[in-house]
């Protein structure tokens, strides 16, 4: 069985500060992990993905995430927040067990203060 | 290359009315999905399809029906709308060739049932 937990439904940071959005997962088989971003009134866009190649994954807009198997975590970070980063972020886990199944977290809304 | 498109963008229904949401993709993807997004609950899978002429139930299928008569289209139907179906609906697609099931999302349909 798979599950995804995003810690914190809302995160607020100041412009220029570190962004850290937390995601923990559970999966009975090796997972693929994703972060998607949703800007207001838009669909989800892929930010980055972990596909077992490298544990530190770099995505678009300066975001990166590190896969830590021992902690079952895939936290999203960005060194310096920009106002344009304000959005909702979803962590997702996908695994293949006879067919793909993808589970999304509840989402974390990021607020960036000037 | 439009990606994934959804029609309509907004709709207001009265309880008991029916409607069909249309999803179209031009990426020749085999897999298509319908999700609903509700505050604090992330995305929940309603139905999905792994190919033309095939559909399957997801996590929350009750009250919805789907059809995939053409590879590029995936229709979501509400036969008798209920206020609990007020939500934002997202369609997504993915390639069967992909080894990790990256999904591509449409812009969403905001449905209100009065």
Radius of gyration of chain B: 13 Å
Taken in chain order, the helices and strands of chain A follow as EEEEEEEEEEE
Biggest beta sheet summary of chain A? 6 strands, mixed
What is the averaged pLDDT score of chain B? 93
* Count of individual beta strands of chain A: 11
Q: DSSP strand (E) fraction of chain A?
A: over 45%
The number of helical elements of chain B comes to 0
Q: Give the overall shape of chain B, derived from the CA principal axes.
A: globular
Structural class of chain A: mainly beta
Estimated structural class of chain B: mainly beta
What is the number of strand segments of chain B? 11
Q: Calculate the terminal CA-CA distance of chain B, rounded to whole Å.
A: 36 Å
What is the CA-atom radius of gyration of chain A, in angstroms?
14 Å
Would you spell out the secondary-structure blueprint of this structure?
The complex is a heterodimer of chains A (114) and B (114).
Chain A: E1 3-7, E2 10-14, E3 19-26, E4 32-38, E5 44-50, E6 56-58, E7 64-68, E8 73-78, E9 87-96, E10 100-104, E11 108-113
Parallel strand pairs in A: 2-11
Antiparallel strand pairs in A: 1-3, 3-8, 4-5, 4-9, 6-7, 7-8, 9-10, 9-11
Chain B: E1 4-7, E2 10-13, E3 19-25, E4 31-37, E5 43-51, E6 54-57, E7 65-67, E8 73-78, E9 87-94, E10 104-105, E11 109-113
Parallel strand pairs in B: 2-11
Antiparallel strand pairs in B: 1-3, 3-8, 4-5, 4-9, 5-6, 7-8, 9-10, 9-11
């Amino acid at each position: 069985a798979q599950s995804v937990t995003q810690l914190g439904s809302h995160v607020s940071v100041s412009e220029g500060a570190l962004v850290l959005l937390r995601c923990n997962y559970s999966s009975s088989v090796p997972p693929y992990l994703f972060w998607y971003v949703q800007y207001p009134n838009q669909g989800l866009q892929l930010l980055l993905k972990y596909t077992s190649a490298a544990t530190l994954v770099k995505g678009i807009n300066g975001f990166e995430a590190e896969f830590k198997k021992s902690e079952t975590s895939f936290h999203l970070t960005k060194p310096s927040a920009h106002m344009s980063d304000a959005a909702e972020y979803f962590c997702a886990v996908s695994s293949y067990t006879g067919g793909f199944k993808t589970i999304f977290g509840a989402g974390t809304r990021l607020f960036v203060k000037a | 290359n439009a990606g994934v498109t959804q029609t309509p963008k907004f709709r207001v229904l009265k309880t008991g009315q029916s409607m069909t949401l249309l999803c179209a993709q031009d990426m020749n993807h085999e897999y298509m999905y319908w999700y609903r997004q509700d505050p604090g609950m992330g995305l929940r899978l309603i139905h999905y399809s792994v190919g033309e002429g095939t559909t399957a139930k997801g996590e929350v299928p009750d009250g919805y029906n789907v059809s995939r008569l053409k590879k590029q289209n995936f229709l979501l139907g509400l036969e008798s709308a209920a206020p609990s179906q007020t939500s934002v609906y997202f369609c997504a697609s993915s390639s069967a060739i992909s080894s990790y099931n990256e999904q591509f999302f449409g812009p969403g349909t905001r449905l209100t049932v009065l």
